[in-house]
Amino acid sequence: MSVAVEQSPLATLTPQRTPGYDRDMDAERRITTPAEMDQMTPQQRADAVRESVVHSLDELDPAFRARVEARARKLAAALPGRE
Length: 83
Hints:
Layout: H1 34-39, H2 42-52, H3 62-77
């Protein structure tokens, strides 16, 4: 017996995989690799994660921020009751 499952409107939106995605992020931010994390003490890992947190949208590259905001608007528009 098969059961019909209603699909969410968000399921029809395909994720955007933009070539060069990382290029639009702040070039001065350092990426810590998993291999580097494996070599760190627990405190060093915690410090690296804490230092990587963006506290303000103003810290983001404007092009990256614009893409993220456009994607959020597209997802919000697809929610039920937003027609």
